[in-house]
């Protein structure tokens, strides 16, 4: 109470910003970042392990980005094979890879989930599979059409082209994922794209559908991340790192303050749950520009969950994990240990719900957390203190505390895990 | 069933696109649009009625866009007045305009909702209002700080600057709206902005925070609409109309096909529910460029509801309706009568739920629907047939039916209401 009175009497709240006096000059922080960036770009080579490099006790299945013409010819060969099978009296059946949980596996060396090679038959001449095989044939036909026209559509468009057959979108969506696996290509190679949600701003130049985009000249709004990654190219950057931000509000603060000009970086956000377009875009940046990725998420189990989706994929698209995931994302903040370290006031912390605590405990059992002792320590602390906090909680020290003190100090101290 | 078999045998589904043969050459459609655009820009002058022009039987309250320095001096005068009141022994109290439904009114001449001038006292020396008046003083102080720093923050940031006092965000949000009304300015004038959600693409050049943006060179992703409308300016365009699209998927189709190059237009979407940033941006385009606005929404009560929010505002921000609404939006499609006209197959239509039907019937009673006989007719048809359809339903005639047949024909026939 006494503290509170004292605070109200001051003209400015700037004096109370914890650790502001610890900040070194920007030039010194930039030196630290340059070392980090160089180390990261050279160390990322041994990281580029593929399934082929490993001697696993079973065969695994992965998909790749294929060109439209390869997708087209893959469909044509598949149909030809089936025609042969029909003519030779062996009937009409699709060989469909299993995408069930039992067929999924986390591979520690790759740090992502992959599919094992179990598959099943989907014969047309069987009452239990006739509908699904008809849907499969129809989806193949529609994708073939997209290849010929060279256009992109959404899953919803696909569904509406034959509502009578598909009945509901869950059915056409599921078969679409089957078709990806069957053809051995990513869903984006099929020219079926997700709605766009993410935005990017900062030291990045790239081409979107032939137009050159300079992300330092995108004002505060930023550039909407394109839904079709295959038309994104020519990435150039003088950034030292990529800053992945969970929330829109923090993104806005950094964009308005042009944080990327003080510390050369690329700032990207999916505004909450990561969508496929943003995940593909992040991966492409990381791969082509060889930059380290630092993540700024809420200090709660969902913040870490979001980090994990970017980092090692979601379970229902595990067949595509190699193309959707960005390895080696560092957890910059807001981490549970930051709450005390940065003296976040009690009233800006939120009590975790029963569900939060359960989610946190479950995550402690996940491979992607366990492999990083620092993360285990932080998550254990969160579950023990039963407290969470949003990135916005830093506003308690002033609206620009995030961009002017918290992040610069984090970078200066290389305080990421 | 016979139809279905026949369809499967064809090589292409293009032949089955209804009305494709009715399309005239683009040059002829462009002539129609030029006439419409010219008529619209000259007719929009008498439309610019303000509250001052009307002789209403009571006083109304509206807010205006104010510069940061005006907001700052308004706050300073307000506080000075209160200081005088305290010194002269009359105590400390805020005079707060009422934003309740009883104080709201739809004004047909303006075609939007406004606030009547009822207000109430919020004294500090009263147990029932002491907290609210303390919150009001604190919000005024924080806004004053934003004015001095010239930065933008979100409502969430504002809340976190004093969680102990505000307790939960609903309280700081509500007082923020009070403060807008008290100062007579829009919420965006306070530099408190909403999260951005919308995107824009097409024949528009504008400046965002000092950067010039050419929306014909934004690829398929488009430009994210900036959260802070006060830093948007220098709008230039050779478009003939603005196409307001409800959904992301339809937006994507039009952006990829560069529809705006065939029929010069600006395409904008909020991806569902209209957010404040997109509404402000649409209004600014309409006002500065004097272009007609055509809306493409789902054929269901919510599509029309969305149109109404753009057109005449939402109830809880009625004090700001003059700045947030775009008058004279035309309902281009998808309209209930289009379902039969364009032969949308039965299986692509969806049955309306009880709730849908109730919403539809309620809307028939709303002033903004009643003033447009064409809309009443369409909505009555919807409620009678109990059928709805999404924009995507047009994909049943081919993925590009929307951009290649439906919209061009709509434009050619001036088929809007």
TrEMBL record, chains A, B:
So where does Mg(2+) get bound? Answer: 246, 298
What residue spans carry the region label Disordered?
1-20
Which segments constitute the Topoisomerase 6 subunit A/Spo11 TOPRIM domain? 241-411
The record places domain Spo11/DNA topoisomerase VI subunit A N-terminal at: 131-192
Give the Basic residues compositional bias ranges. Answer: 1-10
Known EC number(s)? 5.6.2.2
GO term, biological process aspect, one: meiotic DNA double-strand break formation
Which reaction(s) does the protein catalyse, per the Swiss-Prot or TrEMBL entry? ATP-dependent breakage, passage and rejoining of double-stranded DNA
What function does this protein fulfil? Component of the DNA topoisomerase VI involved in chromatin organization and progression of endoreduplication cycles. Relaxes both positive and negative superturns and exhibits a strong decatenase activity.
The UniProt similarity line reads: Belongs to the TOP6A family.
How this chain assembles, per its entry, is:
Homodimer. Heterotetramer of two TOP6A and two TOP6B subunits.
Output this protein's name: DNA topoisomerase 6 subunit A
């Amino acid at each position: 109470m006494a503290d509170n009175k004292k605070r109200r009497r001051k003209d400015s709240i700037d004096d109370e910003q914890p650790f502001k006096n610890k900040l070194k000059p920007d030039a010194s922080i930039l030196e630290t970042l340059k070392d980090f960036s160089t180390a990261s770009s050279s160390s990322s080579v041994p990281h580029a392990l593929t399934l082929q490099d490993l001697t696993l006790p079973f065969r695994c299945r992965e998909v790749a980005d294929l060109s439209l013409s390869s997708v087209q010819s893959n469909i044509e060969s598949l149909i030809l094979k089936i025609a042969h099978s029909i003519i030779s009296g062996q009937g009409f059946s699709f060989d469909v890879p299993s995408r069930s949980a039992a067929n999924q596996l986390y591979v520690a060396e790759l740090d992502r989930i992959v599919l094992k090679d179990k598959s099943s038959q989907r014969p047309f001449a069987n009452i239990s599979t006739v509908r699904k095989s008809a849907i499969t044939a129809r989806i193949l036909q529609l994708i073939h059409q997209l290849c010929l026209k060279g256009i992109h559509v959404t899953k919803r468009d696909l569904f509406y082209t034959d509502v009578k057959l598909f009945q509901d979108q869950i059915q056409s969506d599921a078969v679409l994922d089957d078709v990806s696996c069957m053809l051995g290509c990513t869903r984006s190679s099929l020219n079926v794209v997700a709605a766009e949600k993410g935005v990017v701003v900062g030291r990045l130049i790239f081409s979107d559908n032939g137009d050159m985009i300079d992300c330092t000249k995108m004002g505060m709004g930023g550039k909407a991340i394109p839904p079709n990654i295959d038309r994104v190219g020519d990435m150039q950057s003088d950034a030292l790192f990529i800053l992945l931000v969970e929330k829109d509000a923090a993104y806005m603060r950094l964009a308005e303050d042009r944080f990327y000009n003080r510390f050369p970086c690329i700032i990207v956000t999916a505004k909450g749950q990561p969508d496929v377009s943003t995940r593909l875009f992040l991966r492409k940046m990381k791969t082509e520009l060889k930059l380290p990725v630092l993540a700024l998420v809420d200090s709660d189990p969902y913040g870490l969950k979001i980090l994990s989706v970017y980092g090692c994929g979601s379970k229902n698209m595990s067949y595509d994990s190699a193309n959707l995931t960005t390895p080696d994302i560092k957890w910059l903040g807001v981490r549970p240990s930051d709450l005390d370290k940065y003296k976040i006031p009690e009233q800006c912390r939120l009590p975790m719900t029963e569900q939060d605590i359960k989610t946190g405990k479950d995550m402690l059992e996940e491979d992607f957390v366990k492999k990083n002792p620092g993360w285990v320590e932080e998550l254990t602390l969160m579950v023990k203190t039963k407290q969470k906090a949003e990135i916005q909680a830093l506003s308690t020290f002033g609206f620009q505390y995030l961009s002017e003190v918290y992040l610069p100090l984090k970078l200066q101290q290389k305080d990421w895990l």
